Amino acid sequence: MYRSNTCGELNASHIGQEVTLSGWIQKIRDKGFVAWIDLRDRYGITQLVFDEDRTSKELLELTRTLGRETVIQIKGEVIERASKNKNIPTGEIEVLVSKLTVLNESLLPPFTIEDETDGGEDIRMKYRYLDIRRNPVKDNLIFRHKVSMEVRKYLSDQGFIDVETPYLIKSTPEGARDFVVPSRMNEGQFYALPQSPQTFKQLLMVGGMDKYFQIVKCFRDEDLRADRQPEFTQIDCEMAFVEQEDILNTFEGLTKHLLKEIKGIEADNFPRMTFDEAMKRYGNDKPDIRFGMEFGKLNKVAQHKDFNVFNSAELVVGIAVPGGNSYTRKEIDKLTDWLKRPQVGALGMVYCRCNEDGTYKSSVDKFYDQEDLGKWAEVTGANAGDLICVLSGDTTKVRAQLSALRMEMAERLGLRKADEFAPLWVIDFPLLELDEETGNYHAMHHPFTSPKPGQLELLDTNPGEVKANAYDLVLNGNEIGGGSIRIHDKEIQATMFKHLGFTPEEAKAQFGFLMDAFQYGAPPHGGIAFGLDRLVSILGGQETIRDFIAFPKNNSGRDVMIDAPANLDEEQLKELNLKLGI
Amino acid sequence: MYRSNTCGELNASHIGQEVTLSGWIQKIRDKGFVAWIDLRDRYGITQLVFDEDRTSKELLELTRTLGRETVIQIKGEVIERASKNKNIPTGEIEVLVSKLTVLNESLLPPFTIEDETDGGEDIRMKYRYLDIRRNPVKDNLIFRHKVSMEVRKYLSDQGFIDVETPYLIKSTPEGARDFVVPSRMNEGQFYALPQSPQTFKQLLMVGGMDKYFQIVKCFRDEDLRADRQPEFTQIDCEMAFVEQEDILNTFEGLTKHLLKEIKGIEADNFPRMTFDEAMKRYGNDKPDIRFGMEFGKLNKVAQHKDFNVFNSAELVVGIAVPGGNSYTRKEIDKLTDWLKRPQVGALGMVYCRCNEDGTYKSSVDKFYDQEDLGKWAEVTGANAGDLICVLSGDTTKVRAQLSALRMEMAERLGLRKADEFAPLWVIDFPLLELDEETGNYHAMHHPFTSPKPGQLELLDTNPGEVKANAYDLVLNGNEIGGGSIRIHDKEIQATMFKHLGFTPEEAKAQFGFLMDAFQYGAPPHGGIAFGLDRLVSILGGQETIRDFIAFPKNNSGRDVMIDAPANLDEEQLKELNLKLGI
């Protein structure tokens, strides 16, 4: 027994007790005749005191040899503290130490173990085990644990069964790239790591499991973008005998439960918005609706006024930035430069100041009079003091650009409040998405998503128009969950594969087992998957998922702490019947 | 909404209600003027009724076109059943159907969806989604879910934090073979899938997480033995500032909680036995203590009596098989043949009948008189009517052989009762184990296990004698958990690596990050890991883990349902910079 108590629990009620504590030295203050050590563990900090009157000389001397992060065990008496610290639970007491044992030494850590550390991202990742000692990281991991527990509790109470699906499965070239695993026992063959347990959860529905969930690691070998991880965690769910409405209600229930239990927030029913509406109003299928700045389509009021840039554009669209009229010309120019960066890719920006006196001043006054600009203000909902920002061009591109601007301005204006939660269902997604490079359509969600009733025929004539029984749950501008009602009919599934460019042979080779399963009484079913990393980070009021992962990888997919991936020795390659190089 | 109720919940209190049900057709009985359908879902079976008086002709005709496992939805009225079935919760009622919709057809399943099916293992694995519809498999998966939930609940309540550790880590040639994952972004390099999160959980302790747990998949590329899976699930746990006693108490608490919540059993404190004692008394480090037949060492009483086989043996040891005297000579010969099979490998067996009249009759009467045999009976605890079975030879081998016999006899005698649970801690394991082939020592648990205090010096002189702070939890003759107090000192860890044959360079390359971590204030720590598959199957009263895994692999590591592993296409290999063949 290394301790009678943790460093977070002693208070005035323990005064007079003999206690044993263990932990790390957070800080030492030495005034010569008296010394204090802040002793830290996961649960808190307890102040230890040593002084000339009450502590042996040897012990007081010993404290002078100790460095930060040394692991010690102490015995002593809980006494009342002279100058109390109201900010911590143990602030009323301190422990007068009678015995101190060094359990382990510590080198000077490469960065300070403080809430605000002096360590940069790289060094903290290399010494992640030290980074985890810091409260912000430690608290994030504990927060994640709480969210996971609540998810499991809620779903289990609702009759969902946690079923573990396999990690060593089969590679499917469709979709993102798989990580593969060579099989030694089956020479020349490979397993793949799952991008999601999609087919297995559908088979569980065919198997009558009725309600399934799993918190499960998934893997995607993508070229990493910032804040993407090659391995990530999904809350994966599926239900049989359900329609879209059943799924939305069930998982709105889960999300409300989390908001309540984790954040203490009683959420209203979640609004719903079609994909088309979201694109029109926010230029984005995962709009942040915590604030306005909705899109105003200006084609009618801004075209055919001799301004050729607008006249030739498919879409002219603007937002009213609240209080934006205070921007100087220089600041507006900088904003335009921001929009022109390759990450956003706008060609330029037209703006219109809404003066306090009700007049307007635009960057295109040559073409538009006060009345014209008044209509712009009307359409974008601009008030006096706002700045109307207008982009034009190809619909898809210009929406993405203006959405980026909208989010950027909200960020700058402090409208994206970490403690405000605005969930939203986005529904009626298109079934297919055009790949502009290849000219082929591919599944917007995945090939198992069912089209809306009666729209199957459109697949031949106007595939881009077919809507799917697919939905996303959006929270604060992030997609935290997405799913669909699945196809459960073999013929429809075969049709889908055909439209996605599979030959019947390819479909059979890759998904034959699923199509076979559909022949033996597959029930109607559907589901959803939440990105746990994202969900946790948003609930935690942050947007960087890496801060909520114990041992994340960097943007090259490397774990810099353990230095993986690494070379294999020749013997291992030989056993796997593999050779490097092509 | 496909249903107002499930097929498992309607009873007399619902009589008169209009309900909608969905499910699979389990059975149809057609008497011409009346037909019944048993409708099945995860929750139970509800009887549907159709008859000439109350059902439309079309509907009655429709039922005649339906086959087993067809998915249907019905509407109807709950009515009282004429002949009630007390065996099922819905046995008091039936549903008089007014509308029936076929939701999906089914081909005739390749085996019957019944508790006792006509399908063999192979066909059931290929159509595992149909096998899961059967109650025994479905109930096992739901049982597993319950165990997992209780594990998480208990540990979380005890302050353990569920932390997800990475799956893409680094290969370590030590121990079993790793599954590896080629990295496309880091050319020529590989990740490995974890055999366990061992180093990460230790780093979490260095990181101050204090108490960690995770239910996590682990991977071992071993030549599969019966009932081994290449991927398996561990309940993985670690604690800081603990001694062995703390760990044993904590996880005895967990196991008691499971026995109580899952099986309704209030277990006494678990007995503890040293490894040496277990080997002496049961010839086995995971003894089944639900029954006796303890080993009696006969060297003293059976050697130096002119029987050379015994005289030259390192160990002469016997067990008393209760009631075994009823065996015929032929049966005993068959038992001897069983022992001589290569799986057991005994050279032969000496036996001694304990007659009801108190006399003895042995197969070596030439060498032993009644008094001698009376001593055998005394040492083995044999009573009148028993059969003493005696083996001799090399200690290690003969113990294993006699243990196999003991388990076999217990099985035959029905002493291994599925509803009786006898947990046992086995402690004080040897630190090292001699590899007879290479003559080298390797770690019995793993290289991070700490030696007992004061035994470090023995490593140089008598490595086989060094005892470890290592323990196993044994349940009914199966190791369900094992762990140790870890080394937390860099120097001791370096010494261990040296004794395990690592050069300092190899140790640094593979475990440098851990040894580095030990320099920055590593606390004393230890942990345990339970094999969830095994634990669940034993709690479920069975011993085949495959029956408790949703989608298991066969003995060649293949998933015969999805047909994995499989060939990769050339493009994928090329992207990974890999070539097949050596």
Task: Describe the fold and architecture.
Two copies of one chain form a homodimer. Chain A has 582 residues and is α+β, with helices and mostly antiparallel strands. Chain A folds into three domains: 12-104, Beta Barrel (OB fold (Dihydrolipoamide Acetyltransferase, E2P)); 139-272 and 423-548, BirA Bifunctional Protein, domain 2 (2-Layer Sandwich), CATH 3.30.930.10; 291-412, GAD-like domain (Gyrase A, domain 2), CATH 3.30.1360.30. Helix content of chain A is 29%, strand content 24%. Chain A has 17 helices and 23 strands. Chain A has helices at residues 57-63, 121-126, 128-131, 135-157, 198-206, 244-263, 275-282, 299-302, 308-311, 329-340, 370-380, 395-412, 458-461, 490-499, 504-518, 532-539, 570-575, and strands at 18-30, 34-41, 44-51, 71-80, 93-104, 161-162, 180-182, 190-192, 211-219, 231-240, 272-274, 296-297, 315-321, 350-354, 360-362, 387-393, 423-427, 432-434, 441-443, 470-475, 478-485, 525-531, 578-580. In chain A, strands 6-9-10-22-21-20-17-11 form an eight-stranded mixed beta sheet, with helices on both faces. A five-stranded mixed β-barrel of chain A has the order 1-2-3-5-4. Chain A has a five-stranded antiparallel beta sheet with strand order 12-13-16-14-15. In chain A, β1 (18-30) and β2 (34-41) form a beta hairpin. In chain A, α4 (135-157) crosses α6, α4 (135-157) crosses α16 (532-539) and α14 (490-499) runs antiparallel to α15. The longest helix of chain A has 23 residues, at 135-157. The first copy, chain A, is globular, with a radius of gyration of 30 Å. β23 of chain A pairs antiparallel with β23 of chain B, so a sheet runs across the interface. Chains A, B: GO terms for molecular function: aspartate-tRNA ligase activity. Chains A, B: Residues 198-201 are annotated as: Aspartate.
